[in-house]
Design goal:
2 copies of one chain form a homodimer. With about 100 residues, chain A is of the alpha+beta class. Chain A has 5 helices and 3 strands; from the N terminus they run H-H-E-H-H-E-E-H. Chains A, B: This is ArsR family transcriptional regulator.
DNA sequence: CATATATTTAGATTATCATCTAAATATCAC
DNA sequence: GTGATATTTAGATGATAATCTAAATATATG
């Protein structure tokens, strides 16, 4: 009946609407921080903070490209999250 | 690219590990507050607070039975949440 | 109706979180 | 290497949220 730290970080990550919007945007294609930023009103520092939380939850990956950093949705972890979700709330098995 | 208030309350509701545990417990069968409480360490007031948040998100339903209140998992809303999940993070459609 | 039981509500406290500005770091182009 | 651009880090602030104790409400029972 306990939950790994990893699960915890995923649920925390998707709790915020701005971060869900970031994931939603990245669903279409990978993007630099500046491109992501163009969709929002808040500061670069705030965006960096959100990206860091998503990264820690492994929901996104980053790679360097010159001065830019390109963020990508980590689809396998998103799918894992869906499974966990199903396991906690729907399936007859206990949360493992 | 916006989200209803209802979605917001659902994501907030499942962000807390105690509330996810409550949902996980209710998956097996409906329960009185006292029964739910036996699974946790925190005070009754705290449990009541969590149940209220789950109720506002419509993830659980309550009915009276004498002095007790019986909480039930609202399966249709849990399923709805799974769909929203898929829509935001996986499917090619935008979040509606 | 008085007392016991079940649960919620009120109000306070502490911790966590989203956001900001300013400064730091890294890379590129000249 | 100097200046410009991209992004992150540090530190502060205000808002939200989790929890507690004490008090209130509702129901049941003798």
């Amino acid at each position: 009946m306990h939950e790994t730290i990893k699960h915890e970080s995923m649920f925390t990550a998707i709790a915020d609407i701005q971060r869900r919007k970031i994931l939603n945007i990245l669903k279409r294609s990978e993007m630099s921080v500046a491109e992501i930023k163009s969709h929002f009103e808040f500061s670069g520092a705030t965006l960096s903070h959100h990206l860091n939380i998503l990264k820690n939850a492994e929901l996104v990956r980053v790679r360097r490209q010159g001065q830019q950093r390109i963020y990508t949705l980590n689809l396998s972890v998103v799918e894992e999250l869906l499974l966990i979700f199903n396991q906690i709330f729907v399936s007859k098995e206990d949360e493992k």
